Amino acid sequence: MKVDGIAYRTIWLDEDGWSVRIIDQTKLPHRFVVTRLTSLAEAAHAIRAMLVRGAPLIGATAAYGLALALRADPSDAGLETAAATLMATRPTAVNLRWGIERVRARVQPLAPAERAAAAYDEAAVIADEDAAICRSIGEHGAALIRAAAERKGPGEPVNILTHCNAGWLATVDWGTALAPVFVAFEQGIPLHVWVDETRPRNQGASLTAWELVKHGVPHTVIADNAGGHLMQHGRVDLCIVGTDRTTADGDVCNKIGTYLKALAAHDNGVPFYVALPSPTIDWRIHDGVREIPIEERDGREVSELTGLTGDGRIETIRVTPDGSPVANPAFDVTPARYVTALITERGVCAASPGGLLALFPERAAVG
Ligand code: MRU
């Protein structure tokens, strides 16, 4: 995607051929900063501290993190330590495990001297695949937006509500939930996006809004609690969100607050779509509420706010009184019954075991 006329992905190999470049998302929307990862420790920090975030990008960063680690120590012990270090960074997005396992499977059979080069190669393949998958999600999802536009009539914008950031910053390119928006916008379909601010870290207000500004897509940032009201008054035609882990039965884990939007959509007859690349499906589990580990993050994300001051400084202030305890579960699970359909790289399907297996029949044997 382009930022001020320059095409970027969210992660790429530096010109030196070994270090890795990322966009530091903690600085957005106020500063666009590209930073360099040179070690396993830096890659793990980038994931844990959310310089990179979003399930697919976490997976790609972990893959490059293993490559950086193997460059320093390609032994079996080095590989295992690096995999464990990266696995411990964030618990919810299954793409992390997927990315690590994919690189591990590629390098384990090789002699230590060959491992780093193979890991870099696999990480690059993962990144390229993610970009292609997300573009394809965009095509399938845009067809749903087009259908909504046809129902509304000429010139009437389709109002799409999204939560968190599932745009190109959350993936290698294009995004998941925002890919249909970008493709539909490219195709000239009139649309407008309601952007949930997404407290506590404000991925909607900071990142989704920034992406939409950069691409000229009409949008409005709303407080997280506004969505239900807008749906009751017919001002949302469809919701599209991303996911950090979706079970084989179609339960969807995504940023905290997604479940409440799905409930409001259900009550108001608003279609609720979830866009996901297949590496986000955890085929081993079925019941998302009981089986998906939910990340509990630092309470200061709730008790504090960070933003730009009038004189251009980035500052953090506290919004809770001294002595108030805070809790910060970062994700929730929307049961499949509230999901109208899943938008994948292979097409749109029901959020159900049958729906998923119809698109991914090769997974039937996995159990
Ligand atoms: O905590 P984050 O910012 O990593 O959470 C990201 C989300 O919840 C996204 O909606 C999800 O990863 C889907 S992104 C393609």
What would the keywords be for this entry?
single chain; 367 residues; alpha/beta; seven-stranded mixed β-sheet; four-stranded mixed β-sheet; 12 helices; 18 strands; 40% helix; 19% strand; binds 5-S-methyl-1-O-phosphono-5-thio-D-ribulose; amino-acid biosynthesis; methionine biosynthesis
Structural account:
The chain is α/β, with parallel strands linked by helices and 367 residues long. 40% of the residues lie in helices and 19% in strands. Helix 1 (40-48) runs antiparallel to helix 2 and helix 2 (55-72) runs antiparallel to helix 5 (112-152). The longest helix is centred in the middle third of the chain and has 41 residues, at 112-152. It is globular and about 60 Å long. Residues 53-56, 93, 164, 166, 170-171, 176, 203, 242-244, 254-255, 330 line the site of 5-S-methyl-1-O-phosphono-5-thio-D-ribulose. Pathway: Amino-acid biosynthesis; L-methionine biosynthesis via salvage pathway; L-methionine from S-methyl-5-thio-alpha-D-ribose 1-phosphate: step 1/6. Its EC number is 5.3.1.23. GO terms for molecular function: S-methyl-5-thioribose-1-phosphate isomerase activity.
